[in-house]
Write a structure and sequence with these properties.
With 206 residues, the chain is of the alpha/beta class. The chain is 33% helix and 25% strand.
Amino acid sequence: MLPSEKIALFIDGANLYSTCRALGFDVDYKRLLKEFKDRGALLRAFYFTTIIEDQEYTSVRPLIDWLDYNGYTVVTKLTKEYIDPGGRRKVRGSMNIELAVHAIELADHFDRMFLFSGDGDLRPLLEAVQRRGVHVTVISTIVSQPPMAADDLRRQADAFIDLAELKPKIGRDSSERPLSREMRQQPPQFASRVTINGMNGNDLTE
């Protein structure tokens, strides 16, 4: 990878969270950003997540607020909570469409895409951006039981990085403060919030 190559990160927040749980570690998002800034000219680091409607506070809110002020472009969507036939509380909603739309719209602006998701439903997205000449790396894991990365997604990708290999570089030290507390104490640097209605004033330029 050349330092001059333009790269973009597309993080499926729920999928990354599940993958990290399966591997037994937490992501330090500050370290994650630094890791990929060192790999090329980082244009955007998108973080996609749903927010449960009618809930004033959710566990993801401190993370969203921190990411907003620390170099990430957060894309959110309201979703609904429901009770399934077995009486379990479930959340209906996926960010796959939002992630795909953003990636396709911006594919002409970057050379390499790093997708933090193992969801096989995103294979058509990989095909679409690859047809535009974008090199796609999928970041998930196959060492968990069951594996979090779908086989067809891995086959379609130009490269695959197992998240377990990145743990030493992007994992949070267990001796650090709890992440939510750390996030609240971070001084604002710049905000870059996006909703499903479109991009804000910080749109990419050639």
